[in-house]
């Protein structure tokens, strides 16, 4: 009998402890789900703009997101753009949209897309973002403030804790309603001063949870302002990264232009040196031609003089022959006179 009573007591104690543990586990799971739901409501519940079909994300737990909310999530993730054209699916020479991941070739751009100047830079916006008017006013990077609700007295939602279980030498009989241990008490979890779980009490009416309040209602104005400034600076990091990427692209392009200019200068210098050498060669050839002309002129002069001398020699030879004939005749005549 003693062993049977000990076994009965142990089994009753184990069932009671298991019931309490399951109740606490369910309460903690309920509080965790409620906290996550409130955080997701703070991120997406207060954002509303017209346009674009809403899609679901794991962070929203099935709640629809506005285009501005998806824009902020996209900026927080780094503002990455598609590496291929949205129209033809080919890469290279893409024009990226300023406020969405779409990319287009210049020849594939939709007709109602537009360029606009923001922060002194020329930006391109696809037809979807133009229809939303984002080419005129960029969507805000920070969500709008949630309306501050009237504080709700949390004491009305608080219930009594689990009543103590009387222990006697025999531990009493097993409770007739095991669910009473679970519904008797739920710990109240508060997040930023608002109740996130509702308690039930036998005989009491069920009340709705307090309305959701802003994440910053319990903070002082200085801390709230500092958090907003820090939040804005963190959200500006993707924009700064994009500007750095654009500056790096411009720097690379300028380096290429500088290299092209240097090559052109080097080619110009080579052409100038070659021109100088050619001019020197032309001057030398002109001098040689002048010398050749001079020599040719002298040769022609000498040839003419030589021909004149030849003519004079021939004339003198004829005169000499005539003189010799005349002399021979005079000799013959003289001999004839002497012979007579």
UniProtKB/TrEMBL annotation:
Extent of Polar residues compositional bias: 29-57, 170-182, 191-203
Keywords of this entry: Coiled coil, Metal-binding, Zinc, Zinc-finger
GO molecular function: zinc ion binding
InterPro entries tied to this protein: Znf_FYVE_PHD, Znf_PHD, Znf_PHD-finger, Znf_RING/FYVE/PHD
Coiled coil: 275-333
SMART domains cross-referenced by the UniProt entry: PHD
Record-annotated PHD-type domain positions: 82-132
Spans annotated as Disordered: 1-66, 162-217
Protein name according to UniProt: PHD-type domain-containing protein
């Amino acid at each position: 009998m003693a062993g049977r009573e000990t076994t009965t007591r142990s089994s009753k104690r184990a069932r009671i402890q298991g019931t309490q543990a399951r109740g606490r586990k369910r309460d903690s799971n309920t509080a965790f789900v409620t906290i996550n739901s409130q955080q997701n409501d703070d991120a997406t519940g207060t954002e509303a703009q017209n346009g674009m079909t809403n899609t679901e994300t794991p962070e929203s737990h099935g709640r629809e997101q506005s285009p501005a909310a998806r824009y902020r999530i996209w900026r927080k993730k780094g503002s990455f753009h598609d590496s291929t054209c949205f129209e033809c699916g080919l890469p290279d020479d893409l024009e990226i949209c300023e406020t969405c991941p779409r990319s287009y070739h210049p020849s594939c751009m939709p007709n109602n897309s537009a360029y606009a100047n923001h922060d002194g830079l020329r930006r391109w916006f696809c037809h979807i973002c133009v229809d939303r008017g984002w080419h005129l006013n960029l969507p805000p990077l920070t969500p709008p403030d949630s309306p501050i609700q009237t504080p709700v007295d949390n004491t009305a939602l608080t219930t009594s804790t689990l009543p103590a279980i009387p222990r006697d030498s025999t531990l009493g009989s097993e409770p007739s309603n095991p669910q009473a241990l679970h519904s008797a008490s739920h710990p109240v979890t508060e997040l930023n001063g608002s109740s996130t779980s509702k308690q039930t009490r036998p005989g009491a009416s069920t009340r709705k949870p307090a309305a959701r309040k802003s994440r910053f209602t319990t903070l002082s104005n200085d801390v709230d302002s500092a958090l907003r400034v820090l939040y804005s600076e963190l959200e500006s990091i993707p924009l700064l990264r994009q500007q750095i990427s654009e500056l790096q692209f411009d720097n690379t392009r300028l380096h290429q232009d500088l290299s092209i200019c240097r090559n052109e200068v080097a080619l110009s210098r080579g052409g100038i040196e070659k021109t100088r050498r050619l001019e020197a060669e032309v001057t030398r050839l002109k001098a040689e031609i002048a010398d050749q002309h001079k020599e040719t002129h002298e040769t022609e002069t000498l040839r003419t003089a030589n021909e004149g001398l030849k003519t004079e020699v021939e004339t003198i030879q004829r005169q000499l022959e005539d003189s010799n004939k005349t002399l021979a005749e005079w000799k013959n005549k003289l001999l004839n006179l002497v012979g007579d």
